[in-house]
Design a protein that fits this description.
The structure holds two protein chains of two kinds. By secondary structure, chain A is of the alpha+beta class. Chain A has three helices and six strands. Chain A has helices at 29-41, 133-146, 151-154; strands at residues 47-49, 59-62, 79-99, 102-120, 126-132, 162-164. In chain A, strands 1, 2, 3, 4, 5 and 6 form a six-stranded antiparallel β-sheet that branches. In chain A, a hairpin with a 5-residue loop joins strand 4 (102-120) and strand 5. Chain B folds into two domains: 2-67, Alpha-Beta Plaits, CATH 3.30.70; 75-155, Alpha-Beta Plaits (2-Layer Sandwich). In chain B, 30% of the residues lie in helices and 36% in strands. Chain B is built from four helices and seven strands, in the order αββαβαββαββ. Chain B has helices at 2-10, 40-53, 89-99, 133-147; strands spanning 14-23, 26-34, 75-84, 103-112, 118-127, 149-155, 159-160. In chain B, strand 4 (103-112) and strand 5 (118-127) form a beta hairpin. The chains are: A alpha+beta, B alpha+beta. Chain A binds chain B through residues 44-48, 64, 67, 69, 72, 95-100, 106, 134, 137-138, 141-142, 159-160, 163-166, and chain B through 19, 71, 73-76, 78, 105-106, 108, 122, 124, 126, 156-161.
Chain lengths: 166, 161
Amino acid sequence: MAVRSILVYPHPTLVKTDNTDVLIGDPSLDQIIEDMSDTLDASQGVALAAPQIGYSINMIIVDVNRDKNIKNRDGQGRVILLNPEIIKESEPHRVREGCLSVPEFTGNVIRYREVTVEGYQPDGTYLSIESQGFESIAFQHEVDHLRGTIFLDRVRSRRKDLFRRK
Amino acid sequence: MASVTDALANAGCNIEQSSMSVLGTSFAMILVVNVPKNTERQFRTELVGITTIQDLTIHVDPFPSGDLYKTVEGDSYSLNLHGSDHPGIISAVTRVLSANNINIRDLATRVISGERSIFLMTIDLIVPAEVDVLKVTESLRNIGNDIECEIIFSGDDSITC
């Protein structure tokens, strides 16, 4: 088990826009996947992107069934996606989200209610997921991380839409 | 804004927090400024200089630096209100908050003028753990009925990724 430190904004790794695609089947990914999974389990969050623990590669892990609020456990369990892409999105709406890498704040941002995400599973299987609700937000947030975007970039008004956590 | 911030920079001051807004036809700005001890005289001279050439009113208060980042413990809530504009709305709502020991972190209001003007208010709140949120929700619903405004009081239902 390897719980990694979660990088905190403004760490330069979090704003890198050129994270690399992983090579499907690369055996060195196993350790990174384990690190991401262990780190997520040790955190208060429901998803994690590889750059958040220092790996500049395109890989995410999402598991909204970890959320403290039962009504938000609307996902399909733990999903690990390599080289994920959001290929379809619909119904923008405003949500409040926070980030493990921006621990002191939450913010109102516009996300899509439904997205279709595609990518590879660790065993090399190609996966297409139609996701909605809470899980859909998590996918959008994590894919943003792979592009060097954090939720602060999406907050329209720093004054009205950014909130300090308790 | 440029004149004030230039003056502060000239005096070696660092702006730590700021809030600026146009209220009616006036511009208002509140700043928390760190003034190095050896430049305090220059800081005051610079500010006096601005007020003599521009129609500005400036008020300066010393502020113990240790108090700046003191935070009130509690959960983040927001209150959104809309309704027909009339006197007493802010007073009625803040009376309920005060009676329940709820802290206001930020409050903004605006009126959308028209045949029937609409009043909008947004408040960011810190609700201490011991506050009975159901009771507050009920009180706000009642006061909303009294002042004929829709009040939405909600907690931080955020997702953390």
